[in-house]
Design brief:
By secondary structure, the chain is α+β, with helices and mostly antiparallel strands. The chain is 34% helix and 21% strand. Helix 1 (13-26) packs parallel to helix 7 (165-178). FAD binds at residues 12-15, 189, 343.
Length: 513
């Protein structure tokens, strides 16, 4: 039996260094042979990461805890702020309501009763997330998700992070090198040698041949190992998600004391949507659009109009940095002894922070199920491929949900509602949900990425027209549900009185007070 003692990660960036950190931290002890797992990262200093993944899920907190990186380091070194939700504006308009929230915290009392059907049955209620969860009110008021920087406290809303992608990579890189013993090789890969087992070695400009038991392809869109060397094709998903371009820009706050949004803002446009992420000293923005429905010049004008609306005094460039991409994922993420993580594994628009989430999911599964011996690698690879394929497919379905529910009438949005572009499982569930609420049992696969609760926030945030005439036969918790709705109102009032502002908590963590 040949033990797996070394992993070579080709490419740095968020994918490369998160993977390195999880592998090194998970396998930090010596094996029976006396050897620790060797983790090497080969990173070119002439290739720069795309660096637009600046929003995370709450799972990033536990991921970084596994690696050993403290939250204070993110705030102090990566311009991090707290993310409590995503807010969708102009995706669906109904009367005076133009936006809704997808918060990270569950509805009030969800551990004991799902109050959704009772909310649906009550015509006097307003926006779903705001009625069933305290968190949208915190976002609207610009409040922090917790009382103070100390993690040991009685209350903390569920939260992820907004962070500067370039600085975030630096934080992980330095921690991996100094604390976890990851070997950092700054060099350019000039050739990739293959054999029957997969990647035999990589040839670099200054370090000759570098061998490993497993190679991780984090080379981004170039997919140097998984595609160019091992010829694993992509599964095209552009017939479901139409966007293929993004314009990006970083814009300053109008003044240094401006409140920091603690939610990602996603504003629908004629042929796509604009993300807007609040960091400590700037906002990261980008326009995701379909070149089939809007020219680059038109997209530039759309993006510029948005930027002028948030800071009229900033001098804007005549053109913006552009990213072209094709939506899809690898037919196999793990091929022989090579695993693709990050952009080399595929790309989906960054709606709902899906890109960083899929990096996390991939790296965690690799670290947890790293094969002990090369002989059992095919079994692990098969399981990994099934799980990741399911995760990518379920993510695509969830992102498509946002488009399917829109009532916008531009060509891009009308095309997104065409039946042939909607995945079959999603179409079937949408038909069922016309007559009953979303149930937890609709999503029982262990590889599901988004829970029933996330689907509820989007479906009922967009529109809550559900015919419950038959479902009411199973509803018997009216009093308990009403109690939870009232408790949510009380909790909102309490938190508004107690929580600091988002910028105030960040300033405290930066020792500005």
């Amino acid at each position: 039996m040949t033990p797996v003692n070394s992993v070579v990660i080709v490419g740095g960036g968020t994918a490369g260094w998160l993977t390195a950190g999880l592998l090194a931290a998970t396998h930090s002890k010596q094996g029976s042979t006396g050897a620790r797992l060797s983790v090497k990262v080969i990173e070119s200093d002439s290739i720069h990461p795309i660096g637009v993944g600046e929003g995370t899920w709450p799972t990033m907190r536990s991921t970084l805890a596994k690696i050993g990186i403290e939250e204070a380091a993110l705030v102090q070194q990566a311009s991090a702020t707290f993310k409590q939700a995503s807010k969708f504006v102009h995706w669906h308009t109904e009367g005076q309501r133009t936006g809704y929230y997808h918060p990270f915290s569950a509805p009030q009392g969800s551990a004991s009763v799902d109050i959704t059907p009772y909310w649906l049955h009550n015509d006097s209620l307003n926006e779903y997330a705001s009625d069933v969860c305290f968190q949208p009110s915190l976002c609207e008021q610009g409040l922090a998700p917790k009382l103070k920087a100390d993690s040991k406290q009685s209350f903390s809303a569920n939260y992820g992070y907004h962070l500067d992608a370039g600085k975030f990579i630096n934080v992980i890189r330095e921690h991996c090198k100094k604390v976890l013993g990851v070997e950092h090789i700054i060099d350019d890969v000039t050739d990739v040698a293959t054999d029957d087992a997969g990647i035999k070695h990589v040839v670099t400009k200054n370090n000759d041949h570098i061998r490993g038991d497993i190679f991780v392809d984090c080379t981004g869109f170039s997919a140097r190992l998984i595609e160019k060397a091992l010829d694993v094709p992509m599964e095209d998903a552009s017939s479901v998600l139409f966007s293929d371009s993004a314009l990006v820009h970083q814009i300053a706050y109008s003044d240094e004391h401006q409140p920091i949004a603690c939610h990602t803002l996603s504003t629908a446009q004629e042929a796509g949507w604009i993300w807007d992420i609040g960091l400590q000293n700037r906002r990261g923005t980008g326009y995701v659009y379909s070149s089939e429905f809007q020219s680059d010049d038109e997209a530039t004008q759309t993006f510029m109009a948005y930027l002028k609306s948030i800071n009229p005094n900033e001098e804007l460039p005549s053109t913006f940095r552009k990213i072209n991409y094709k939506t899809g994922y690898r037919k196999r993420f793990w091929e022989k002894n090579c695993v693709a993580i990050g952009l080399s594994s595929g790309f989906l628009e960054p709606l709902e922070a899906s890109s960083l989430m899929l990096i996390e999911q991939s790296a965690i599964q690799l670290a947890e199920q790293l094969p002990a011996y090369t002989q059992v690698m095919p079994h692990v690879a098969s399981r990994f491929n099934r799980a990741l394929t399911n995760k990518w497919q379920s993510t695509i379905e969830f992102l498509k949900l946002h488009y399917v529910l829109s009532n916008r009438n531009e060509d891009f949005w009308l095309a997104n509602r065409s039946p042939q572009s909607i995945p079959q499982r999603l179409a079937s569930l949408l038909e069922e949900w016309q007559y009953r609420p979303i149930l937890d049992s609709d999503f029982t696969d262990t590889d599901e990425v988004f829970s029933a609760q996330s689907y509820r926030y989007i479906l009922y945030g967009m529109s809550h027209k559900t015919n419950l005439s038959q479902y009411v036969r199973s509803m018997s918790e009216y009093e308990g549900a009403d109690k939870q709705l009232q408790l949510n109102k009380a909790l909102i009032a309490q938190l508004k009185a107690r929580l600091p502002s988002h910028r105030g908590l960040i300033d405290t963590m930066l020792n500005k007070h």
